[in-house]
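Technical note accompanying the year-one report. For the benefit of new consortium partners, we illustrate the data format agreed upon in the data management plan: each record pairs a sequence with a structure-token string. No post-processing was applied to the example shown here.
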Amino acid sequence: MPALYPAIDILGGKAVRLEQGDFRRSKEYDADPLEAALRWVNDGATRLHVVDLDGAREGRPVNLEHLGRIAAEAGVPVQYGGGLRSVESVDWALAAGADRVVVGTTAFTDAEALDAMVQSGGARVWVALDVRDGAIATAGWMNSTETTAPEAATALAGRGVEGFVYTSVDRDGTLEGPDVEAVQRVLDAADEAPVIYSGGIGSVDDLRPLGSLPLEGVIVGKALYEGRFTVKEALAVL
């Protein structure tokens, strides 16, 4: 059964949520990201997904201090992504306390750097498949490619990438529900590499079809912040 990953997106040192990856449409929920982390863990979360939005925009990790605080005090594994575009940045994130890092842009722009990251971090280095309008988006979701998520999953799994975080950017922050058929296509293409899904979860009912798929996990952000359901209710379904 999929695990639940409450999302903590950090922008300007605060926990926020964007809509469809648009930095102009951000909403602050917690002045301190650690507060969000502790709230989800106290409600039953056994792992967390942290995104450095500042890092994604600037191309380097910006919020490693917050990552370190969350990893040290939450007491659960923390998955971290955003701005990880060099081997050094991956090493910094892992040293700061990340249990797993998620690399996006570099996986599609610098094959040698990605290979070096995987060699350095091994199974702790996953790749983000962020999809907008049917194709992979990079650079904090601001640039587009012509590669589809299934194509990328097949190619990268063949190169030793251990797992993927597949995000529907078009649905992210909209609460409109997942595209289950698209998720299944990515699972089929990943060739048994684990996949975590993110994007559009708005209700407990949205989790039910995902719970029947062989996903490693499901990331939920806005729905939890908006009180659409609780961590405990999500865990009961998944």
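Partners are asked to follow this layout when depositing records. The mean pLDDT is 94.
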